[in-house]
Specification:
This protein is of the alpha/beta class. Helix content is 28%, strand content 25%.
């Protein structure tokens, strides 16, 4: 399994611009073919290039597992159609809400999802239906933006260093994987900003250190 230091659009904040599951990866438009091939080689899944709502912040706006993708309400019909054309077995839904940064509000893998306490029951029910997993409200290091301070694969979770024991137990129980803590990009504790990962490999920001890579390896 490969872990590769990487930049996207010249930035080490690779997780802001992309997301990955065990079935597909979504990246913004504008990467070279060489970089797209490297992503395919490392993550070993289909890569789809798309801007969402005319934004390249894929990892901030969208949340996904192998079953489905959650998107903000303003994503265009053309973008939805494009995703459905290229990801035929994946449920793709917009949530009508004043919240738009679902990548920051949802932490999910194929086993479960932990979501921000700021989400209401209607939103949570839709997330549960689209991702086809158990959903629980929670915080990570007391942050409600759980998707910004942790990443999850079907093999492990990497979370903010200030994760409490109670929060660790919630994550491991819902996501059904071991939970570790760490940082990316030389000490950044908002770990999802600097990593794009699935069960097969990981792209990490180019500033990520050797000790950080050792901890990240537990995810794959």
């Amino acid at each position: 399994m490969t872990i590769l230091r990487f930049n996207i659009l010249g930035s080490p904040n690779v997780g802001i611009f992309s997301l990955a599951t065990d079935k597909f990866t979504i990246i913004p438009v504008g990467l070279t073919q060489r970089k797209v091939r490297r992503i395919e080689e490392v993550l070993k899944v289909k890569v789809v290039s798309l801007d969402l709502g005319y934004s390249k912040l894929i990892g901030v706006l969208a949340a996904a597992n192998s079953n489905g993708i959650i998107l903000p309400h303003y994503i265009t019909d053309e973008e939805i159609d494009f995703l459905k054309k290229h990801l035929k077995d994946v449920r793709i839904e917009r949530i009508k809400s004043n919240k738009t940064s679902f990548g920051n509000l949802i932490l999910t893998n194929d086993n479960g999802a932990v979501v921000s306490p700021t989400l209401n029951q209607r939103e949570i029910k839709m997330i549960e239906d689209v991702l086809d997993v158990e959903v629980a409200k929670g915080t990570i290091a007391e942050y409600v933006f759980v998707g910004s301070v942790a990443v999850a694969t079907n093999k492990g979770v990497l979370a903010h260093p200030n994760l409490s024991e109670e929060e660790r137990e919630l994550l491991s129980g819902v996501l059904k994987t071991p939970v570790n803590v760490g940082t990316v990009n030389c000490g950044v504790s908002f770990v999802s900003s600097g990593i794009v990962v699935n069960s097969y490999g990981a792209l990490v920001g180019s500033l990520t250190t050797g000790p950080e890579l050792m901890i990240i390896s537990s995810l794959v």
